[in-house]
Amino acid sequence: MEILLPAVAVIILTLLYLIHLYNGLVRSRQLAEEGWSGIDIQLKRRADLIPNLVHTLRSYATHERQTLDAVIAARNQALGVSAGDVSGRAAAEDALGQALARLFALAEAYPDLKASENFLGLQTSLETLEREIQMARRYYNGAARDLNVRIESVPSNLVAGHFGFTKKAYFEITEAIDRALPQVSI
Predict the structure, then answer these.
(1) CA atoms of 138 and 143, how far apart (whole Å)
(2) Complete DSSP assignment for 59-99
(3) Distances from the Cα of 117 to the Cαs of 15, 102, 114, 125, in angstroms?
(4) pTM of the model
(5) d(CA 21, CA 1)
(6) Mean of the per-residue pLDDT values of the chain
(7) For residue 181, is it within any domain?
(8) What is the pLDDT of residue 53?
(9) 100 lies in a domain?
(10) Environment class of residue 1 by beta-carbon count within 10 Å: exposed (0-12), middle (13-18) or buried (19+)?
(11) Taking Cα atoms as reference points, which of 110, 115, 160, 168 lies closest to residue 139?
């Protein structure tokens, strides 16, 4: 009886520790999924804003159809990527960001457009959304990092492997041009 009691105590403590590890992994996975949901919501808001922006530009720049169509095509491609495909969504959103940059460069050529209250409001809304997307990406990447560390660290990697926890991909910049340092001339 004296030997059985400590053995049972060790087994119970081990089980409690494994439960603690498992619950920590579940919490980390949920935080990463919550982070991805935040990105998805912000990207949807941006996608919903783009048609209004393109419509406003169309009335001023009717002969710039190719640039406007490229923005709509990039938007549709980004919306077509499945919700769980982080790297595919990141690539599609990078392409959309580049198309939007060309769109705003186009707007510079039209002084009446730049003075339009409607366009200025849409531009301000888009800039606010871009900041919110950046914050959501940071949150998601931090939650994905925490989950990935737990999945790879001993002893939680044993529990993670047994229960099928998988690493999350980071939402990263995929275009090398976006990583380049800007050239500033004085």
Answers:
(1) 9
(2) HH-TT-HHHHHHHHHHHHHHHHS-TT-HHHHHHHHHHHHHH
(3) 63, 20, 8, 12
(4) 0.77
(5) 30
(6) 86
(7) no
(8) 83
(9) yes
(10) exposed
(11) 168
